[in-house]
Design goal:
The complex is a heterodimer of chains A (152) and B (503). Chain A contains 6 helices and no strands. Chain A is an all-alpha fold. The mean pLDDT of chain A is 87. Chain B is mainly α. In chain B, strands 1-2 form a two-stranded antiparallel sheet. In chain B, helix 8 packs parallel to helix 23 (469-502) and helix 10 crosses helix 21. The longest helix of chain B has 34 residues, at 469-502. Chain B starts with a helix and ends with a helix. Classes of the chains: A mainly alpha (152), B mainly alpha (503). Chains A and B meet through helix 1, helix 2, helix 3, helix 4 and helix 5 of A and helix 9, strand 2, helix 11, helix 20 and helix 21 of B.
Chain lengths: 152, 503
């Protein structure tokens, strides 16, 4: 209960901080352009204060089963892999990266059916290539590795 | 209007449009059938992928996905007692008991026909109600539009979810995000922090994918479900709907369609509420209410017809006022904006062929559902459930990245998508509703522009905002929306007092 209560109070404090810094930023813009953001920030600050006071005064029993992360390790691994994926594919090509990404992702999450992962990633990469490049003519980053292997 | 209807039908009569509607419906059924994947996630992924297509082709995909996914949710609900989407929860009540009694095929057929029929009636309601309402809104000025935007935001924030404060905070954050970029009146930058990528503001697609699709990816990664459903659980038996049963279903379909349409028009409600209300009303009016929950076909028909008749009806305020009443309508509006179509009365005047074309697509894809969602297709779609969820997770990421990157070829937007994904994930975990936030992003510009124009016209006189009867009426509605939780709390405390005194 205490943990959840603290999370709620923490969120309210973060919102108040956000409102404070967003208001501070509006000092550097002309009054006309700052009018609407200031109304919105005022609303956030007011609502966050109500939220904070409510949580401080609240004595109700909270749901302790709701943790922010049910599996922090998998969350962190997933996030790192997704960031790596979106960083790499514009550099070396979408289909090569996706083909590798699917297999690495499922292996990192603990799945050991490698044949299934290989086939799934191959079918998905080929399918998206046919659909988006051949049929819809979308422009995607050059497939550098495939170019090096094929030689053109 | 007649000319627009003819133009729309003419524009629809292309092979590309029909393929789009068929593909959209099939993919929608698959998305709906997969527990964890919902219509909102499907649409969030589809919108950037459809960028660059002809607007009607893209809208055909969206219409098909919307109707298809609403029915798709019934497949696992009936076969496995797992609702594929929130709107299919009521379908489990009688659908799964029917499946356990060896009537799975019958339950699926009833669900498919009910869904299809509900979708058709809803599309007809959209076709009949939206154009006259759009004409009424032509009388609206900036003050009225400011109140309309505020009403849309207030109603979805206060009425959706259980905590109005969190809903309003979510909507305010959306409004703040909408103010990022160059101010169109003064030309000054706001919250761009020197980044050129933020000059035009934050793309609606980035926010849509980040908030609606990525949080689910993070959840799926943490759940890491390694195996799919076993083949034996997906066994279907052959049964037909006979004539007496068909006749007995008709009153349920009529009642549920009316309920679904009314719920659809109301802001803040959704398919799940329509399904529950239809189910309860059918049970209440039944001669055998005790048979509900034990495999009564009327229960399946009521739930499925109710949730599907909400579909097109929920687009009435979106298309006419530019104010989406729920998350799916907000996504459809995002899809329209991506294709350069600004919802509101002008849409019916300037792009009549497209808007009527889209309404027809909602109707046609509902009819298609009857053929595409039949037994053979359902057998195939049910097999989707055999795929391990963990394999689908990186594929969803792949589709999101592909869709987003092909719009602007921007790595910055990919990183922004991840940031919004994280924000959406933590907000969901803290029980902040996400639809008000997306609505804030969408309606922020309309609210700000209308407010500033109104103040310019009145030379800074704020009372101008309440100078017309329409403005006063809408402002009154907003007050009523804010009083709803207070009224609910009073009602609840009275009930508690009653309960306490009786014991």
């Amino acid at each position: 209960m205490r943990q959840i209560l603290n999370k709620e109070i923490g969120t309210a404090c973060i919102l108040l901080l956000l409102a404070g810094s967003a208001w501070f930023y509006t000092n550097s813009i002309p009054a006309k352009a700052a009018m609407f953001p200031r109304i919105v920030i005022g609303m956030i600050a007011f609502l966050a204060t109500v939220y904070l006071v409510r949580e401080l005064l609240s004595r109700r029993i909270e749901d302790t089963t709701t943790a922010l992360l049910s599996n922090p390790r998998r969350f962190a691994v997933g996030l790192v892999l997704i960031v790596a994926y979106i960083t790499i594919f514009p550099l070396i090509g979408y289909f090569t990266t996706t083909f590798i990404f699917i297999q690495v992702f499922v292996a990192a999450m603990g799945m050991r059916r490698f044949r299934m992962a290989f086939l799934s990633s191959a079918i998905f990469s080929l399918g998206t290539y046919v659909l988006f490049v051949i049929l819809l003519n979308r422009s995607l980053p050059d497939e550098i590795i495939i170019r090096l292997i094929v030689g053109f | 209007m007649t000319q627009d209807l003819i133009s729309a039908l003419y524009a629809l009569a292309t092979i590309d449009n029909f393929i789009a509607m068929i593909v959209g419906t099939l993919v929608g059924i698959i998305i709906g059938a997969l527990p964890g994947l919902t219509t909102t996630i499907g649409l969030a992924i589809l919108i950037p992928l459809s960028f660059g297509l002809d607007p009607l082709v893209a809208l055909g995909l969206m219409a098909g996905m919307y109707n298809g996914s609403m029915y798709g949710g019934a497949i696992p609900a009936i076969l496995l007692n797992i609702p594929g989407a929130p709107a299919a929860i009521a379908t489990t009540f009688d659908g799964h008991p029917m499946a356990k009694a060896g009537k799975s095929a019958l339950a699926l057929k009833i669900a498919c026909y009910s869904s299809s029929l509900g979708g058709c009636v809803s599309a007809l309601a959209l076709l009949l109600l939206a154009p006259p309402l759009a004409m009424v809104t032509l009388a609206f000025g900036p003050a009225e539009y400011f109140w309309v935007a505020t009403f849309g935001l207030a109603s979805i924030s206060v009425l959706l979810g259980g905590d109005p404060i969190k809903g309003l905070i979510s909507a305010s954050l959306g409004l703040l995000i909408s103010s990022v970029g160059m101010d169109v009146v003064t030309g000054r930058m706001r919250y761009t922090f020197g980044m050129l990528e933020l000059v035009d503001g934050i793309s609606i697609i980035v926010v849509l994918i980040g908030l609606f699709a990525l949080p689910r990816v993070f959840k799926m990664a943490q759940e890491a479900v390694m195996s799919g459903v076993s083949k034996s659980d997906l066994k279907l038996s052959e049964q037909k709907i006979d004539r007496p049963m068909l006749i007995s279903l008709i009153p349920t379909w009529i009642r549920s369609s009316i309920i679904g349409i009314m719920v659809g028009i109301l802001p803040g409600a959704g398919g799940n509420i329509a399904a529950f209300l239809s189910y309860n009303e059918t049970k209440r009016t039944s001669k055998n209410p005790e048979s509900f929950g034990k495999g009564n076909p009327l229960g399946v028909a009521a739930a499925e017809c109710g949730n599907s008749s909400d579909n097109a009806a929920s687009l009435i305020p979106t298309l006419t006022l530019g104010v989406p009443g729920n998350a799916i309508a907000a996504l459809i509006m995002g899809g329209l904006l991506v294709h350069g179509l600004q919802p509101g009365p002008a849409l019916f005047v300037e792009n009549g062929d497209i808007v009527y074309g889209f309404i027809f697509q909602m109707l046609i894809t509902s009819v298609m559902l009857m053929a595409l969602g039949g037994m053979i297709a359902t057998r195939i779609f049910a097999q989707v459930l055999r795929a391990p969820q963990i394999i689908l997770t990186p594929m969803i990421v792949g589709l999101m990245a592909l869709g987003l990157y092909t719009v602007n070829s921007s790595s910055f937007e990919l990183y922004a998508m991840v940031c919004f994904g994280l924000l959406g994930y933590f907000m969901e975990q803290m029980k902040f509703p996400l639809p008000p936030m997306i609505l804030g992003v969408i309606l922020g510009e309309m609210a700000e522009q209308s407010l500033r124009t109104a103040l310019l016209i009145s030379r800074g006189d704020w009372s101008y905002l309440l100078s017309s009867p329409i403005s006063i009426g809408i402002a009154g509605l907003i007050v009523m929306v804010f009083l709803t939780p207070v009224w609910r709390a009073i009602k609840k405390s009275k009930q508690l007092q009653k309960g306490g005194s009786s014991t």
